[in-house]
Design a protein that fits this description.
Distance between the termini: 58 Å
Helix content: over 70%
Oligomer: single chain
Number of strands: 0
Order of helices and strands: HHHH
Number of domains: 2
Structural class: mainly alpha
Largest sheet: none
Number of helices: 4
Radius of gyration: 22 Å
Bound molecules: zinc ion
Amino acid sequence: MKTTGQSSEQNQNGQSVDLLINTLRESLLSQKASILNKSHEFKAEQSSSLAQGDEAEIASLDASNNISIHLLERDRNALFSIEKALGKISDGTYGQCEACGEMIAARRLQARPFTGLCIDCMEDQESKSPIYQ
Ligand SMILES: [Zn+2]
């Protein structure tokens, strides 16, 4: 009989990233579903308020529209980040730094799942562009 379990120590890092990615993918998919649901609900709500159409309704609809536009933009950005991360997961490139190609530390990915940069490159960018701060 041969023993094949020689590489458990070697795989430790890879396994924790795999586990992280599996958990993350599920969470991304549910976030995506809830954003899509929310925008669907909003559309249904909007068309029913429009159908009623008295002046007070229209005024409050206007105010809530402004909030919703803001929300939708935020949701759109969130969806974009989610899609990007999901795309990387299916490509097998999730967790790689976009700037230097090194693997991003699992702890960093846990804290900031949408980051595309390792801590070194992030610090490098932050020092160049104050927008990131
Ligand atoms: Zn990097």
